[in-house]
Amino acid sequence: MKSAMVLGATGLVGRTLVNMLLQDRRYSEVTCLVRKPLSSQMFKDPHNRLKPVVIDFDHLQDYQGYFSVDHVYCCLGTTLKKAGSKQAFRRVDFEYVHVAAQLTRAQRANSFVWVSSVGADAKSSNFYLRVKGELENAIMRMPQLPHASAVRPSLLLGNRDESRTLEDIAQKTAPIWQSLMKGPLKKYRPVHAVDVARNMMSLQRW
């Protein structure tokens, strides 16, 4: 059986992913590195596989030992509005994820999968997409981390604890988007969190 670790377990994709991992018989343990204690109602854990660990993400390197698992899933991410500044946004969406990839390499986990974004491009004039693209380049060029993969979702569909205007609109207009976005535009369709989580699991090295 395999062991997994998830960073960003309380977000839309992370929460969905953890619940799927806890139901997957291939995993004997699912470690979640979190900022604060998890609500007992957030996850269904009938087999007691969940291992939440409260940490300080500004000192992520101090928790290197937790990365000695088979599969690392990184769902960390924020928004410019929530972060409050470009610097704070970059700290979460680039620095934390980059450090997580480095620790995965150091502990020789089998694979590292993280959430990027459709349109990620290090040369983009859009700050959000530029940071995502710079992160992809940094991780994919990292030596001795051969099994790293990024998923690139568009707007996410699912039940959030917080309201995000664009994603709220996408939820209500999803049928229209699905019918209009075909061919090259298909990748920009709003996507359900469960599909993103399923894709992340399929990219892991077994």
TrEMBL record:
Any Pfam family: NAD_binding_10
Domain named NAD(P)-binding: residues: 8-127
InterPro entries given in the database record: NAD(P)-bd_dom, NAD(P)-bd_dom_sf
PANTHER family: OXIDOREDUCTASE HTATIP2
Name of the protein in its database record: Epimerase
